[in-house]
Write a structure and sequence with these properties.
Order of helices and strands of chain A: HHHEEHHHHHHHHHHHHHHHHHH
Strand content of chain A: under 5%
Helix content of chain B: over 70%
Largest interface: A-B, 56 and 40 residues
Helix content of chain A: over 70%
Largest sheet of chain A: 2 strands, antiparallel
Strand content of chain B: under 5%
Largest sheet of chain B: 2 strands, antiparallel
Order of helices and strands of chain B: HHEEHHHHHHHHHHHHHHHHHHHHHHHHHH
Number of helices of chain B: 28
Radius of gyration of chain A: 22 Å
Distance between the termini of chain A: 27 Å
Distance between the termini of chain B: 66 Å
Strand order of the largest sheet of chain A: 1-2
Oligomer: heterodimer
Chain lengths: 496, 681
C-alpha cells in the first residue's frame, strides 16, 4: 500500500481522527459547548476530502478506483453515502446541543462515539470485500450500542443491552452467511464472487444454483435486514428507539439505515448481480418489502408514544426502500433505476426524519412527555416547530410538494417498470394507511386544545439544523433534479 | 435581450411577496398591515418593469426566444419539464397582467383601507398575480394547468373574501364549481396527451410541451378525431374560465368580491385566460374547422345574450359583469373566425377600459355605499374625475372613434364579415346587434349613475325608500344586501371624489384606454410604431402563414359607429332626458323583458332542475348510498382490521430479548423454507 492510497481512505481517517481529537479536547476544555462547535468545524475536513475524491473519480474513465489492497471501492456510489452520512452526522451533532443537559459531563465521549460510528458507516458504503465489510459494520455498530445506553437510566440501559445482544446475533448470522458464500465462490472479493457465480451452472435445480449459496444469502439477508430494520429482523427497533437518547435515535434511523442499504445494494448488485440470481433475490426482497410496509404501518397505528410510532414508521420506510432493491430487471443487463431511487429516497428520508426528531427533541425538552396527544396546541405555542413537524409528517406520507413524494414516485415507477406493479400498488395502499397515524400528529399540533400556553424554547444550533432539514425536505420536493442526477450517476456504478 | 433568469424573477417576485405577507407580515406584524400593500405593490412593479423588458425583447424578433425547458422530474418514461415559452403573445399578456395588477393594487390601498383583512387581501392578490403570470408564461401544458387551477383558487378566495356574508360564500362556491365543469374538459385533454406520450416520444417530442403538441397537431401525428376532441376539451376549459354560454352563470355572482378584485380578476385578466388558452392553442384549433365554428358560434351567441342581460340590470357591477361576458364573447368569436391576433388585440384594449369601469363603480360605491343605480344619480357634480374617466371608458367600450374599443371592435366585425359563409354571416349579424346593445347598456348605466338628481344612496336603500324609478315588474332581489360595501366604515353616504390613490390609477387607465387601440395596431405607420404592430408581434405566435393585418373597413366602421351612436341616443332619451319613460317601454315588451330579467331562467334551470332534482335526488342519492354502504363499510372493516391486527402484532413485542433473538432465527428459517418449497430453477 502506497502512501498515495491514504488519500482514498482520507475521509474515513479524518473522521476517526476528529473523534480522537474531540476526546482529547474534552480533557482540556471547560465549556463543553465548544466540543460540538469543534466537531462541526472539523467535519469540514472529511467533507473536503470527499469533494477531492469526487473530482479524482470524475477523471477516471470507469468512474471507479480500487485501493488499499483492493478492499475499497472509491466511486460516486461510495461518495454519495459519504456526503449523506457526513451531513446526517453534522446535523445530529448540532441538534444534540439541546440535549446536553442530559448528557452531563460526558459530552466529549458522546460526540466522539458518534464520529467513530460515522467512520464505520462511510467505510461500509465503500467496502469491496466481505471481511472489510464485516469489520466496518462492527465499527459502525459498537459505538451506537454505547450511545444507546448513554443516559444510564433504566430505559436507556435496557435499550443498549438489547441492542448489544441482538446486534451480536445479527453479526453472527451475517458472518455465517458470508462464510457459506465464500465456500461456494472461493473468494471474499465482491467482484470475484460475482464472476464466479455468473459462470456457475444452474443444473442442480436448487435455489440460487446451490443449497449452500441459498443458506449464505438467507443468512446475509438476516444480517443486513437487522441493520435496515426490515421485517422479520426489526424487533429490536421499537425498544431501542424508545430508550435511546433522542439524537441517537435520530442518528440510528437515518445514518445507520443508509449505511445498511449501501452495503446491501453493493453486495447484491456486485457479487450476486447475475441475471439468474437477481430474479430469485428480487422476489425475496419484494416479499420482505410488503411485510415490512404492512407490519410497520399497522403497528404504528396502535402506538401512543411518538418515538415508538416513528420506530414502526422506519420499519415501514424500510419496506418502501426495499421496493427499489427488488425492482431489478428480470432478464438481460440490469438498469439502475431501482437503486438510484433508493439513493434519492434515503436522502429525502434523512432530511424528513431528522426534521421530525429534532422537533421532538425541542418539544420533549419542554414538556417531558413523548405521548403524541401531549403535542397538542404546539401550533400556537411553537408555530415554527409545529410547521416543521407537519412538513415532516406530510413528507413521510409522500404528499407533494415534499421530497417524500418524489422519492416514492421514483421508487414505485421503478417497480412498475420491472413488472412489479402489484408491489407498487401495495406501497400506495400502505401509504394511504400511514396517513392515519402521521396525521394524528398534525391533528394534535393544530386541532387539539392545550392547557398550557407557554412558548417552547430551542437553541440556535438546533434551529439552524431544523431549518436546513425542513427547507431541504421541501426543496427536494420542488427541485429534485440535481440530487436525482447525482443519485443516478452513483447508482450506475452498480450495474456497469 | 432579456435573460431567462429575469423572466423567472417576474414570476418569483409576486410569489415572494405572497409568502412574505402570508408567513411573516400577517401572522406577526398585522398591526403594520399597510406594509402588506407596499410589499405587494413593489413586487408587482418589479414584475411590470421586467415584463416591459420581455416585450421589448420579443418585439422585432418575430419568433419565440427559444429557451429550453428544464427537466423537473424524470423517472423512467415520465419526463415532466418546466420552462417559459417567451414569445410575443406571452410578453404582451405579461405586460397586461402585471400592469393592470399594479394599477389596481395601488387603487386597492384606498378601497380596502381599514378593512380587517387588509394583509390577507394583498396576500391573495400577490398570489393571484403570480399564478396568472405563471399561466401565461408556461411552456408545459400541465404546468399551465397548475397555474390555471391556482388562479381559480385565488378567484374563489377573493370572491369569498368577505366570507362572513352568505351571498359572498355562495358566490365563491358557485364560481368554483361551475368553472370546474369546464376544467374537467381541459383535464381530459391533458390526460389524453399524457397517455399518448409514447406516440410523441417516437418523434422525439414531449407530449406535454405546448410547442410539441402544436407541432404534432399540425404535422398530422394526432389523428383528425383526436384533434377535434382535444379542441373541444380545451375549449370547455376556456369557456368555463371565460364565462361563455352555458357556463357564464358564475361571473355575475362573482361581483360579491371586493370591487378591485372584480376589476383585476373578473374583468381584465383571469376571465381572459380562456381566450388566451384558445389563442395559445390556435394552431391546433386551426386543424379542426368544426371546433372553430363552435368557438365562433358560442362566442357570438354569448356576446348578444350577455348584452341583453346587461340592459336590464340595476346593479352597476352586474351591468359591467354582463358586459365582460359579452366582450369575452367577441374575443372568442374573433378566434373562431380565424383571427386570434384580433382577439388578443381586443383582449388588452378591453382589459384597460373594463378595469377602469369597475374601478369607477368602486369609486361610486365608495361615495354612495351602494351598487344599486336606482339609488344613485347626479354624481357627475360631486365626482368629476370619476365621471370623466367612466365616460371615456364607456365611449371606448361602445366603440366610438378614436378610442381603443373602436379599433379592436371594428377589426372583430371586419374579420367576421370577411370570413363569409353561413357561420361567418351569422356571427357578423350577432356582433353587429351586440354593438347597439353595448352602447345602450353602458350609457344607461352612465346616465342612471351620474345624471339627474341624487337619490339617496345606501341610506335610502336601507330605509326601504320606494323605488324612484319603478321599472321593475317584481322587486329585484338586492344582489348586494346591506353590508355589501367594502367595509362597514364606508357604508354611509359621503358624496365626494375618492382619494388620490384611487383616482390616479383610474386616470392612468383612462389614458391607456384612449390611446392603446390606435397606437398598438394602427392601420398606418406612426412615428415610432410601425403600422399593425400587434399583428406583427403576435402573428408568429399562432404559426400564421403571413402577418394577419386587418385593413380598415370603411363601411363597417361607419355602420358600427352609427349603431353605437343610436344606442347611446336611445339611452339618452330613456335615462338622460327621460323623453321615453322606461316603464312604458318595458310594459310594451313585457314577456321578453321578463325572460331577460330572469337571466333567461338559466340559473333557475341549473339550480332547480339540474342540481336539485337530477343531481341531488338522482345521482347524488345513489352515490350517497354507495358511499355509506360500500365505501364506508370497507373503510370501517379496514380500520378495524388495522387497529386490531396492529395491536395483535404489537403484543408479540414482549420486550424479552430472547424472544427477539428467536424471532430473527425464525425469520432466517422461514426464508430458507420458502426457497425450499417454492424456489429453485
Amino acid at each position: 500500500m502506497s502512501p498515495s492510497e491514504l488519500f482514498l481512505l482520507s475521509p474515513e481517517i479524518s473522521v476517526a481522527l476528529l473523534g480522537g481529537v474531540i476526546l482529547l479536547l474534552d480533557l482540556a476544555v471547560k465549556r463543553k459547548g465548544y466540543l460540538a462547535a469543534a466537531a462541526l468545524v472539523g467535519l469540514l475536513v472529511p467533507a473536503g476530502f470527499s469533494v477531492g475524491l469526487l473530482i479524482r473519480v470524475g477523471s477516471e474513465s470507469t468512474g471507479q478506483l480500487t485501493g488499499v489492497f483492493d478492499t475499497l471501492f472509491i466511486d460516486r456510489f461510495a461518495i454519495y453515502f459519504k456526503f449523506l452520512i457526513l451531513a446526517a452526522t453534522a446535523l445530529v451533532i448540532a441538534a444534540s446541543v439541546d440535549y446536553r443537559a442530559r448528557l452531563g459531563r460526558f459530552q466529549g465521549e458522546y460526540y466522539g462515539l458518534i464520529l467513530f460510528s460515522a467512520s464505520g458507516m462511510m467505510l461500509l458504503a465503500a467496502g469491496a470485500e466481505l471481511i472489510t465489510l464485516f469489520v466496518a459494520l462492527e465499527l459502525a455498530t459498537l459505538p451506537l450500542v454505547a450511545l444507546a445506553a448513554f443516559l444510564r437510566d433504566a430505559r436507556s440501559t435496557e435499550s443498549g443491552l438489547k441492542f448489544l445482544v441482538l446486534s451480536a446475533v445479527s453479526s453472527a448470522l451475517l458472518l455465517y452467511g458470508m462464510a457459506f458464500t465464500f465456500g461456494v465462490a472461493g473468494s471474499t472479493w465482491l467482484r470475484d464472487i460475482g464472476q464466479v457465480l455468473s459462470g456457475a451452472s444452474q443444473e442442480t435445480g436448487a435455489p440460487f444454483g446451490s443449497y449452500a449459496l441459498m443458506l449464505g444469502i438467507a443468512l446475509m439477508v438476516a444480517g443486513f435486514g437487522f441493520k435496515i430494520a426490515s421485517v422479520p429482523f426489526q424487533m429490536w427497533v421499537p425498544d431501542v428507539y424508545e430508550g435511546s437518547p433522542t439524537p441517537v435515535t435520530a442518528y440510528l434511523s437515518v445514518a445507520s439505515k443508509a449505511a445498511g442499504f449501501a452495503v446491501l445494494l453493493r453486495v447484491f448488485y456486485v457479487a450476486l448481480g447475475s441475471a439468474d440470481l437477481r430474479v430469485e433475490w428480487g422476489t425475496l426482497f419484494a416479499v420482505l418489502s410488503v411485510l415490512s410496509m404492512s407490519v410497520g404501518n399497522l403497528v404504528a397505528i396502535a402506538q401512543s408514544n411518538i418515538k415508538r410510532m416513528l420506530a414502526y414508521s422506519t420499519v415501514a420506510h424500510a419496506g418502501y426502500l426495499l421496493v427499489g432493491v427488488a425492482a431489478v430487471a428480470r432478464a438481460g443487463p440490469s438498469d439502475s433505476l431501482g437503486p438510484s431511487g433508493v439513493l434519492f429516497y434515503l436522502a429525502t428520508y434523512t432530511l424528513t426524519n431528522l426534521t421530525a426528531f429534532f422537533v421532538i427533541i425541542a418539544i420533549v425538552n419542554k414538556t417531558g412527555s413523548e405521548v403524541i396527544e401531549d403535542f397538542a396546541g404546539m401550533g400556537r405555542r411553537a408555530p415554527w416547530l409545529a410547521l416543521a413537524l407537519a412538513i415532516s409528517m406530510v413528507s413521510l406520507i409522500g404528499v407533494p410538494p415534499t421530497g417524500g413524494f418524489i422519492g416514492k414516485v421514483y421508487i414505485f415507477s421503478a417497480a412498475v417498470r420491472h413488472d412489479l406493479a402489484w408491489l407498487a400498488l401495495a406501497g400506495v395502499i400502505n401509504s394511504v394507511v400511514s396517513v392515519y397515524y402521521y396525521m394524528r400528529v398534525v391533528r394534535a399540533l393544530y386541532v387539539l386544545p392545550s392547557a398550557s400556553q407557554e412558548r417552547v424554547p430551542s437553541s440556535l444550533p438546533l434551529r439552524w439544523a431544523l431549518g436546513i432539514t425542513a427547507i431541504g425536505t421541501v426543496f427536494l420536493g420542488l427541485l429534485p433534479t440535481h440530487l436525482l442526477r447525482f443519485a443516478q450517476e452513483a447508482a450506475r456504478i452498480l450495474t456497469s | 435581450m432579456i435573460p431567462e433568469s429575469a423572466a423567472w424573477v417576474v414570476l418569483g417576485l409576486p410569489l415572494a411577496s405572497f409568502l412574505l405577507i402570508a408567513l411573516v407580515i400577517r401572522p406577526f406584524f398585522n398591526r403594520y398591515a399597510r406594509w402588506a400593500g407596499y410589499v405587494s405593490i413593489a413586487a408587482i412593479a418589479g414584475s411590470f418593469i421586467l415584463s416591459l423588458w420581455s416585450l421589448s425583447s420579443t418585439t422585432g424578433l418575430y419568433k419565440a426566444l427559444g429557451w429550453p425547458s428544464h427537466s423537473w422530474v424524470k423517472a423512467g418514461p415520465l419526463d415532466f419539464q418546466v420552462g417559459i415559452l417567451m414569445d410575443g403573445l406571452t410578453a404582451i399578456m405579461m405586460v397586461v397582467v402585471s400592469g393592470v395588477s399594479l394599477l389596481i393594487q395601488i387603487y386597492s390601498q384606498g378601497y380596502m383601507h381599514g378593512d380587517r383583512g387588509y394583509a390577507r387581501y394583498f396576500a391573495y392578490m400577490s398570489l393571484f398575480t403570480a399564478s396568472m403570470l405563471g399561466l401565461v408564461m408556461s411552456s408545459n401544458i400541465l404546468m399551465m394547468y397548475m397555474f390555471w387551477e391556482l388562479v381559480g383558487l385565488c378567484s374563489y378566495l377573493l370572491i369569498g373574501f368577505w366570507f362572513h356574508r352568505p351571498a359572498a360564500a355562495a358566490a365563491a362556491k358557485k364560481a368554483f364549481v361551475v368553472t370546474r365543469l369546464g376544467d374537467f374538459g381541459f383535464l381530459l385533454a391533458i390526460l389524453y396527451l399524457f397517455s399518448h406520450q409514447g406516440l410523441f416520444a417516437e418523434k422525439g417530442l414531449n407530449s406535454l410541451l405546448i410547442s410539441d403538441i402544436l407541432a404534432a397537431a399540425q404535422g398530422g401525428l394526432l389523428g383528425a378525431t383526436a384533434v377535434t376532441w382535444l379542441g373541444i376539451g380545451i375549449f370547455a376549459g376556456a369557456a368555463g374560465k371565460s364565462a361563455q354560454f352555458p357556463l357564464h352563470v358564475w361571473l355575475p355572482d362573482a361581483m360579491e368580491g371586493p370591487t378591485p378584485v372584480s376589476a383585476l380578476i373578473h374583468a381584465a385578466t383571469m376571465v381572459a385566460a380562456g381566450v388566451f388558452l384558445v389563442a395559445r392553442m390556435f394552431p391546433l384549433f386551426e386543424e379542426t374547422s368544426a371546433v372553430l365554428k363552435l368557438v365562433a358560434l358560442v362566442g357570438g351567441g354569448t356576446a348578444v345574450m350577455a348584452a341583453t342581460m346587461g340592459m336590464v340590470m340595476f346593479d352597476i357591477k352586474r351591468v359591467i359583469a354582463y358586459s365582460t361576458i359579452s366582450q369575452l364573447g367577441y374575443m372568442m368569436l374573433a378566434i373562431g373566425v380565424g383571427a386570434p391576433v384580433v382577439a388578443i388585440f381586443h383582449l388588452f384594449n378591453h382589459a384597460f377600459f373594463k378595469a377602469l369601469l369597475f374601478l369607477g363603480a368602486g369609486s361610486v360605491n365608495h361615495a354612495t355605499g351602494t351598487f344599486d343605480m336606482r339609488y344613485m344619480g347626479g354624481l357627475r357634480r360631486s365626482m368629476p374625475l370619476t365621471y370623466l374617466t367612466f365616460l371615456l371608458a364607456a365611449l371606448s367600450l361602445a366603440g366610438i372613434f378614436p378610442l381603443s374599443g373602436f379599433w379592436s371592435k371594428d377589426e372583430v366585425l371586419a374579420v367576421a364579415l370577411g370570413r363569409g359563409g353561413v357561420v361567418g354571416t351569422l356571427v357578423f349579424v350577432l356582433a353587429v346587434a351586440g354593438v347597439f346593445m353595448t352602447a345602450f347598456y353602458i350609457f344607461r348605466a352612465l346616465f342612471m349613475t351620474f345624471e339627474g338628481n341624487f337619490r339617496g344612496g345606501v341610506a335610502a336603500e336601507q330605509a326601504g325608500h320606494p323605488l324612484l324609478q319603478a321599472e321593475v315588474l317584481s322587486p329585484q332581489p338586492a344582489s348586494h344586501p346591506p353590508g355589501s360595501a367594502s367595509s362597514s366604515a364606508e357604508r354611509h353616504v359621503h358624496l365626494a371624489e375618492s382619494p388620490l390613490v384611487m383616482v390616479l390609477p383610474m386616470v392612468v387607465l383612462a389614458g391607456l384606454g384612449v390611446v392603446s387601440g390606435f397606437i398598438a395596431n394602427s392601420p398606418v405607420a406612426l412615428r415610432n410604431v410601425p403600422g399593425h404592430w400587434v399583428s406583427r408581434l403576435l402573428s408568429p405566435s399562432f404559426a400564421l402563414a403571413e402577418i394577419e393585418k386587418v385593413p380598415f373597413n370603411w363601411p363597417v366602421a361607419l355602420g358600427s359607429t352609427a349603431l353605437a351612436l343610436a344606442g347611446i341616443g336611445l339611452a339618452y332619451l330613456m335615462y338622460g332626458v327621460r323623453r321615453l319613460e322606461p316603464q312604458r317601454v318595458v310594459r310594451r315588451v313585457g314577456p321578453v323583458y321578463r325572460t331577460i330579467y330572469h337571466k333567461y331562467y338559466i340559473d333557475d334551470l341549473y339550480e332547480g332542475v339540474v342540481i336539485r332534482n337530477l343531481l341531488y335526488r338522482g345521482v347524488c342519492g345513489v352515490l350517497d348510498w354507495f358511499d355509506r354502504a360500500v365505501v364506508d363499510g370497507i373503510a370501517e372493516v379496514v380500520g378495524w382490521f388495522g387497529r386490531n391486527v396492529g395491536k395483535a402484532i404489537a403484543r408479540l413485542q414482549t420486550g424479552q430479548v430472547q424472544a427477539y433473538g428467536i424471532g430473527m432465527s425464525a425469520g432466517v428459517a422461514a426464508i430458507v423454507l420458502a426457497y425450499l418449497l417454492w424456489g429453485g430453477g
